[in-house]
Design a protein that fits this description.
6-stranded antiparallel β-sheet; 2 domains; Hypothetical protein af1432
Length: 327
């Protein structure tokens, strides 16, 4: 059995499949006549792919293929209504839990994390304010925190829902916010620090496990915005006022608490400074652009034409795949 990663985005109809996948989802359904059938969603670090239905005479082929299990699959890529799927040609083999690392099969960013950390550390070194440098170093000079942060997704199922997605998202937000601050004659260092700190709560809000990404109890009960503010408060404890003054602490806390922009979207307060406003829209830009980019790349939304035949839930409207190039 092959051990290489099957490249889901580049798979074409007729390709042979003989690889290991994580079972991302399992649906048990019934036909109109009452006969049962099973649909599986399989995944690896390159993406997700559904199976063709396993009918009642094939149900044993998916025996034990529960969500979070790693399975060996033999089959081929087929198409149904223009969408790719795996058509099994042999029963799945369920791999023992102690012989695999399911997290290896979770989707992850396609950018080297080393380059992202270089960007973050360069941005930290360029900060002119000692107070801002002290504040950001409370988190990003902590090696244990960096390990957690690099592993975390930026969401459970939405934008940047990838291992490393949080690190990628904050570097995007920081870059966008800094450029906007320079144009608007705001404080670029402050928006960079706000961007780096705004989602630290996601380290505690989200869990990365064999079945994928999920909310922790703290994430469900408090949300990442409040968790981030509490984490900043914890790390500021013991920092002398001579390093970070009380009004400066309040402003950093405000940037975390207001970055979703409004109460209905999870912010206890709305932005009250130019920098907080720029941070909010930089966050929106990174998230919404990622939603669009990933939705455009998903074949399931398109039936063969330029315009999607459905409204991807992440963007809420039909989208257009440009048929031409501007190169």
């Amino acid at each position: 059995m092959a051990t290489s990663i099957f490249d889901i985005p580049r798979a074409t109809v007729g390709d042979r499949v003989q690889h290991e996948f994580l079972v991302v989802d399992r649906e048990e359904k019934k036909q109109a006549n009452g006969d049962p059938f099973v649909l599986l969603t399989l995944g690896n670090s390159s993406g997700r792919l559904g199976t063709a239905p396993l009918w009642s005479n094939q149900l044993e082929w998916a025996g034990g293929a529960e969500r979070g299990k790693v399975v060996q699959v033999i089959g081929e890529i087929a198409a149904f209504h223009g969408r790719r799927q795996v058509r099994l040609t042999a029963p799945m083999r369920i791999l023992p839990d102690d012989s695999v690392e399911p997290e290896r099969f979770l989707p992850r960013i396609g950018v080297a994390t080393e380059s992202l950390w270089e960007w973050v550390d360069r941005a930290r070194s360029e900060l002119k304010s000692p107070a801002l440098r002290r504040a950001v170093d409370l988190f990003f000079a902590d090696d244990a925190f960096r390990v957690e942060f690099e592993r975390a997704p930026a969401s459970v199922a939405g934008h940047h829902a990838l291992v490393g997605g949080l690190l990628l998202h904050v570097t995007e937000v920081a870059s966008i916010a800094r450029s906007a601050a320079r144009v608007m004659k705001a404080n670029p260092d402050l928006v960079v620090v706000g961007a780096l700190l705004h989602d630290v709560g996601k380290v505690r809000a989200y869990d990365v496990g064999p079945a994928g990404f999920s909310h922790t109890p703290a994430g469900s009960l408090l949300g990442h915005v409040v968790l981030g503010a509490l984490m900043l408060q914890e790390r500021l404890h013991g920092v002398p006022p001579s390093d970070i003054a009380s009004p400066q602490r309040l402003e950093l806390m405000h940037m975390i608490l207001s970055h979703h922009g409004s109460l209905e979207f999870g912010s206890p307060v709305q932005p009250m400074t130019v920098e907080a406003e720029l941070l909010h829209w930089a966050d929106e830009t990174s998230a919404k652009a990622n939603d669009m980019v990933e939705s455009l790349a998903e074949d399931e939304h398109f039936g063969g034409g330029e315009v999607s035949d459905r409204r991807p839930w992440r963007v809420g409207r039909r989208i257009w795949r440009r048929p031409h190039s501007w190169d």
